Amino acid sequence: GGKNLRMAARVVRAKTPSGGRLLCLDDFHLPRDEYPRNTARRVSQVLGSAFVQAMQQLGRQDGEPGARLRPGAPLPRRRVDAGGGAAADRAGDAAVREALDAIAAARLANGYSGLIHNPGHNSFVQQQDIGRVRELGAAFEFSPYIWYKSPIIEDIEQAVQPHLMERWIPIKDALDAGALAVAGSDWNVVPSVNPWLAIETLVTRRPPGGHGEALGEVERVTVEQAIEMFTINAARQRNAADCLGSIETGKIADLVVIDRNILQVPITTVHATKVLMTIIEGEIVYNAGHTLQN
């Protein structure tokens, strides 16, 4: 399932013996015929047998290092359609396409299991692949919270063609196509898992507080859409929307009380939202000491 896929991604992001850091293979934007063979070979020279073994766990039958599930290879049910939806870290558009190809192959071989598989990150996605997620009954997990200007963005901008950044992390495209989209922090890659910061910046595409240059502004979403990504969409991805994801009669009483109505306050203040109370299964497990009225 997803654990094997995530394991491979973690191996690739390991530190080198010299103390440097390697990007996940899927972070390279390369033509399809170049990806991931050449890059995989260079990284495998550093990481050695651990990397090769991780790739073999992903269905590579020939032992060659690589960062993809081959769409044409058989995908046993135990690897893709058991236990929970499979998740694969995919940032580059070639990697995202191959993840979708692998999901399509699994659906063809095993039928639709009801599990919702997802490529993770999805920093770059070809327009023709956006609609495939809905067709496959899959999801996009967009992470980490770097859909606004930050130090890592400067490095990415230097590595790719400028026009690619216009659709950086194409969340609006995905929602417009009817795809199931959820948000992820990719903790501990980002300094904070604060969902209020993420919701604000999904809407503004600017650093918290609304200052600075916008990033991928055409991919801005509404506050309502951003909230849904963290709530009902996440529940749907887990096949748990019948009991989680919204406040409705008959659902589990997991909810928070916050200090402002984020649908009404200026969007640039949403990142400062504070939780006053947390309720899990109807029981108050956190209370900031405030007296609640009405």
Secondary structure blueprint with pairings:
Blueprint: H1 2-12, H2 37-47, H3 49-57, H4 77-80, E1 87-90, H5 93-110, E2 118-121, H6 127-130, H7 132-136, E3 139-142, H8 151-159, H9 171-176, E4 180-183, H10 195-204, H11 223-230, H12 232-237, E5 255-258, E6 275-280, E7 283-287
Parallel strand pairs: 1-2, 2-3, 3-4
Antiparallel strand pairs: 5-6, 6-7
Helix share, percent: 25-40%
Strand content: 5-15%
Q: Give the spatial strand order of the biggest sheet.
A: 1-2-3-4
Q: Which whole number gives the mean pLDDT? A: 76
Structural class: alpha/beta
The gross shape turns out to be globular
Q: Provide the gyration radius in Å.
A: 20 Å
DSSP strand count:
7
Our count of helices gives 12
- Largest β sheet strand count, sense and barrel closure: 4 strands, parallel
- Poorly predicted regions are 1-83
Element order: H for helix, E for strand = HHHHEHEHHEHHEHHHEEE
Give a written overview of the molecule.
With 294 residues, this protein is an alpha/beta fold. It contains 12 helices and 7 strands. The protein has helices spanning 2-12, 37-47, 49-57, 77-80, 93-110, 127-130, 132-136, 151-159, 171-176, 195-204, 223-230, 232-237, and strands at residues 87-90, 118-121, 139-142, 180-183, 255-258, 275-280, 283-287. The strands form 2 sheets. A 4-stranded parallel sheet has the order 1-2-3-4. Helix 5 (93-110) links the parallel strand 1 (87-90) and strand 2 (118-121). The longest helix has 18 residues, at 93-110. The radius of gyration is 20 Å and the shape is globular. Residues 1-83 have low confidence and may be disordered.
